[in-house]
């Protein structure tokens, strides 16, 4: 079975991002994926210390469980990064998570990038926010994740900002519907 790993950067287990991700999991199972979720807020991970040890080992020296998560990433076929907007950016734990993915890439002296992201071939970004015009205001957050994923040589990436702020109605949003149909398209493709 193919594997979808959802990294949810919201503290709210029943929030907007969670609702959208539940829909993504349901779609994924339709296309032969099993999905699991990592909640960034539940991890006890510290910030990247920039020690660079991972550049030769592809592992982190910090013994806080992140190496096990990196293994889960490497064995996934598709990743979903879901985060609320907190003051114009992703949440703090999501940013820490991204930084701790550093062992999965290496910039060579000639500026070429090597990826150690394993099976991952595609990804999607889900950004939920409260501002009604958030799709315009926060498009740069999606772009930032797309650029990070490019550093891992993952280029089949979709992404959307979903303005709503209300978990009970977020699925009705046209932005949410558009986001889900893009992800469904990615899931269908080999
Ligand atoms: C600390 C904090 C900062 C926030 N900052 C913004 C913001 O800058 N722009 C915005 O549109 N919404 C902001 N929000 C609202 C959330 O992005 C919004 O409620 C989102 O849907 C929450 O996602 P969740 O339900 O998945 O947790 C903020 C919420 C909190 C708690």
What does the model show?
By secondary structure, the chain is of the alpha/beta class. The protein has a single domain (2-188), classed as Rossmann fold (3-Layer(aba) Sandwich). Helix content is 36%, strand content 23%. It has seven helices and seven strands; from the N terminus they run βαβααβαβββααβα. It has helices at residues 16-30, 54-57, 66-74, 92-99, 134-137, 139-151, 174-188, and strands at 2-8, 33-39, 78-84, 105-107, 113-115, 122-129, 156-163. The strands form two sheets. The chain has a five-stranded parallel beta sheet, sandwiched between helices. A two-stranded antiparallel sheet has the order 4-5. It is globular, with a radius of gyration of 16 Å. The relative contact order is 0.18. The mean pLDDT is 97. Bound molecules: flavin mononucleotide. Flavin mononucleotide (FMN) binds at residues 10, 12, 15-17, 84-88, 128-131, 134, 164-165, 167.
